[in-house]
């Protein structure tokens, strides 16, 4: 006999039903909820593998950690967020809003994961970032969101909080990282504002220690700068 593989919906008649109560007890309701959405588009059959829940569990733990210090104490700051933090938040809110409109929940979950991966190395604990992010996550992970909402000092349920809005101004790229070449070979990278003046860029390139090593004390014949693309020093 030749055996094949067929992906079907769970059904008692096919003896392939997984009891959700067991999974909730083992992994938590939010993990199961997000994992089911993360599997793929709602209208498609999807392979079921509970080992994949580990990724969602780790995401929720990282999200929770943004609100707490290394000792586990709740530590949210009222400080002003940075440009990088605002960009990550507004990019996420925009994408999730669009995904909800077309019922593309799996890409929403992926977007949340990317956002937390961006905020973690920034050591983000700003209320201005975490509060709206919690509201956006609430439809996907309502239990953890509700608990964090209470910790943030709110008396009413997060269910009644309006969905956050995004602002285009935080999504505009205002810097560009130029690959800097010497005689056509890439020797480093330098970031400049997208509206930086050519003269300022040339001075910064020639003053960079990494680039100076490859000039070997020679005076460049010319510096070629293609806006928002490349910078090349010809010796």
Stretches where pLDDT is under 50 for at least 5 consecutive residues are none
pLDDT averaged over residues: 86
Gross morphology: elongated
- Measured distance between first and last alpha carbons: 71 Å
User: How much is the radius of gyration in Å?
Assistant: 24 Å
Q: Main beta sheet: strand number and arrangement? A: 4 strands, mixed
Strand content: 5-15%
* Relative helix content: 40-55%
- What is the tally of helical segments? 9
The number of distinct β-strands equals: 4
Q: SSE order, as H and E?
A: HHHHHHHEEHHEE
Strand order in the sheet with the most strands: 2-1-4-3
Would you tell me the structural class of the helices and strands? alpha+beta
Write the layout of secondary structure elements.
Layout: H1 20-27, H2 29-38, H3 53-65, H4 83-101, H5 105-119, H6 127-137, H7 142-151, E1 175-182, E2 185-193, H8 198-207, H9 209-215, E3 222-226, E4 230-234
Parallel strand pairs: 1-4
Antiparallel strand pairs: 1-2, 3-4
